[in-house]
User: Which sequence fits this backbone?
């Protein structure tokens, strides 16, 4: 009986020792192969300080596979780069590999620092994306005191960012797209009516047309009186649930779309989509995908 107990005890010790050594070895192995941050392939980050408004921008740049400088790829500029760039990079790469889209360069316009910094996020968007200065509205007086910088931001894109992209990558000479959501959609609509030649394609999602008493509607009326041409391919999108945001965003976009349409601009290709069951926060990925396919349709 005693020998049996000794034998059982010995076997248990051996098993425990084997388990311990194996676990310890795995621990060592895991330490050597500690998790690494995931990086998007074929991407890089640059910083550019604007002479126009003094702001430093982080530029997230995606190059197509087999990139060749001077091939004059189309360039897609995305605002709100912290959440838009990775989506745009992956969607465009997925489609271009399957020949559903041309190869293109993506430039996400962001800001240094943590993207999760809510205060910086609100300040940067309010300063750069709003066309007029108003004391209240938007994110509130704390941020609205910085509002009204859209003209300078557009000047930075036209006079500093675009030449840098053309110089460094030889791309975007005559085929440029802007993607904007919410305040970014407000800015893109503002550019459409004030610098229409800056971009040839526009993907405008849930634009904040309510801003400053719907001043963009007045801007569109003035533009229509002075111009009968607006050469651009424009895709507007909004979620069907966005009348519940505190602003009737579906109704406002429909009215703005009709105003553009009734102006009968020569050269304007205009599309509007209302996506069922999408809200202001969920609309972006599906609208971006459909927008790219629409503005690049042959």
Assistant:
């Amino acid at each position: 009986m005693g020998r049996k107990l000794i034998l059982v005890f010995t076997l248990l010790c051996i098993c425990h020792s084997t388990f311990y050594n194996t676990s310890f070895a795995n621990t060592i192995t895991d330490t050597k192969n500690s998790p690494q941050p995931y990086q998007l392939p074929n991407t890089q980050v640059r910083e550019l300080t604007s002479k126009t408004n003094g702001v430093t921008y982080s530029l997230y740049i995606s190059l197509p596979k087999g990139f060749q400088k001077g091939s004059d790829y189309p360039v897609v500029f995305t605002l709100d780069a912290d959440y838009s760039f990775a989506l745009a990079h992956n969607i465009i790469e997925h489609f271009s590999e399957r020949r559903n889209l041309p190869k293109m360069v993506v430039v996400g316009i962001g800001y240094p620092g943590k993207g999760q910094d809510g205060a910086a996020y609100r300040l940067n968007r309010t300063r750069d994306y709003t066309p007029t200065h108003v004391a209240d509205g938007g994110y509130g007086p704390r941020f609205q005191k910085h509002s009204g910088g859209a003209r300078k931001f557009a000047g930075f894109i036209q006079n500093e960012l675009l030449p840098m992209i053309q110089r460094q990558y030889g791309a975007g000479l005559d085929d440029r797209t802007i993607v904007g959501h919410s305040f970014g959609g407000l800015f893109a609509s503002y550019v459409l009516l004030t610098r229409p030649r800056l971009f040839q394609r526009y993907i405008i999602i849930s634009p904040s047309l309510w801003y400053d008493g719907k001043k963009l509607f007045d801007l569109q009326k003035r533009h229509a009186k002075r111009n009968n041409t607006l050469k651009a391919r424009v895709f507007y999108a909004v979620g069907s649930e966005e009348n519940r945001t505190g602003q009737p965003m579906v109704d406002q976009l429909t009215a703005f779309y009709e105003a553009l349409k009734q102006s009968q601009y020569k050269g304007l290709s205009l599309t509007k989509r209302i996506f069922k069951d999408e809200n202001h926060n969920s609309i972006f990925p599906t609208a971006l995908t459909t927008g790219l396919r629409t503005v690049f349709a042959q």
Summary: The longest helix spans residues 2-32.
